[in-house]
Amino acid sequence: MRYCIVGAGFSGAVIGRRLAEGGHEVLIIDERGSVAGNCHTARDASTGVMVHVYGPHIFHTADERVWNYVQQFGEWIPYRHRVQAMVGDRVFSLPVNLMTINQFFGKTMSPAEARAFVAQKTTPTQNPKNFEEQGLNLVGRELYEAFFRGYTRKQWGVEPTNLPASILKRLPLRFNYDDSYFAHPYQAMPKDGYTAVVAKILDLPGIELRLGTRFEDLNESFAHVIYSGPIDRYFDYAEGRLGYRTLDFERFEADGDYQGSAVINYCDEDVRFTRITEHKHFAPWEAESHERTVCYREFSRFCEPGDVPYYPIRQVDEEAMLRRYVERANATDGVSFVGRLGSYRYLDMDVTIGEALAAADRMLACIAEGQTIPAFFVEP
User: Fold this and answer.
1) What is the pLDDT of residues 344-355, one digit of tens each?
2) Which residues are designated catalytic?
3) Mapping DSSP to helix (H, G, I), strand (E, B) and coil, where does residue 206 land?
């Protein structure tokens, strides 16, 4: 049978390969001229640095199936992501850890002392309903306003009270000096970039890849469509436009090492950009071989028609619109929605890959048993 997959990012590539391995023909299309979606990487022509074209993507996971899967498609080099934060004219480490707390408050507390100190500053809430409640519940008002409030308003363009608590729940609070941004046991970067990994996933008989192709322009029939684009776009925005953020990048070069870190967040709201990324530090094994460095200031704004959608905002008042799209999807035969945009959820890369593997398992089982393939494999 012949299947169409819309989007050549990790969701589409993983599902497409599993279907092809199962003996099916697969057409994978993407309206861009490259694979890997927003994880696309390429060598910068001027500096030779491997650049994350649509912003940094860091692979980290505790899922052994996902870790074992990606290792088949390239060499992965251990990489520990560290982030600094500018607050006023001072630099701190993130996520908030014992060093951050001691430095911010000018103290030398032990882990137990810091835990008790922060607890006195929090506003305990049994079930935080939004981002701000979660922040005040986690770190208290002073740390929340210094590191999270202004940055979040720039990044998301809405008040933190209109964002779900789940966004901040992804970040830990540590009462030790561990400044690793992630705590997962498997953390690495692909030596040759993410685009090379996805290209190898797609390198299999039975897969036809068409780049520069829009789904709306296809005039072919398929047994089923797997759609990883924005769910509201599939239905021609019949229920309205869901909110997404997009990014603008201001590129600049420098000699040597510009900031000494892959990422520095700028938390103050009067600084227009959210962060500066220096891409040679995402590949530290080759960083010193580059005499020049390339950096990007990131500016976040609301996604307009024609922009690249990056982050589903998922404001509290959007839930009703999303539910209407989910109802439409469940009532539509022959299409399933996957990935960050298809399910309108903020997903890390490893979760995207894991869900794609599980979705492919379910699809193959449905095909083998003659059952209907569901519209969603994970409820949005």
Assistant:
1) 998 999 999 999
2) 170, 174, 245, 275, 298, 346, 348
3) coil
